[in-house]
Amino acid sequence: MSSPEQPPTSSTLAGRLLLATPALTDENFARSVVLVLNHDEDGALGVVVNRPLDVDVESVLPGWQPFATAPGKLFQGGPVALDSALGLVAVPGDEPDPVGVRRVFGSVGLGSVGLVDLDTPPEAVVAQLSGLRIFAGYAGWSAAQLEAEIAEGAWFVVPAEARDPFSDTPRELWGQVLRRQGGDLALVASFPQDVSMN
Fold it and tell me: SUPFAM superfamilies annotated for this entry (predicted)?
């Protein structure tokens, strides 16, 4: 099987997607799609973008519910700090950083993804956003841990598209992202959940 794009340096992972390979059976990450938000010599941090919970944003952050991208649910961002909330936003191409938003990757003119300070009044920021997702928890790796997992075959590393973190069909995102890669990776999308059934 041909291998997906592999990062030449740690700095290249921010803004990329990690797709769990069929070999990764840990229930926290099986068939997950992780958007990497930060990656450096100290480790990595990201959010699982394809795990909506059956919980409305309103139950934890009522002021943000009207602005949450459909389906308007809280997402499980990963197994770390499940009692904390993280807001991921899409900033359209020509907008400067809105109040309360820290751009994570992308650029003015091309659109970007950022983190929003959830203590900011929603009305002060939402007019300048084109997407909003709220995550409970996040995924984190210590120094060199993610690189080791990639080398062991736990993750495919692929480019992210701006719509991925805000997909209206998040539960189908794993297969959708694999299929758009073409070649052998597209075939992985048809693997059964239990590879012993293949």
Answer: VC0467-like
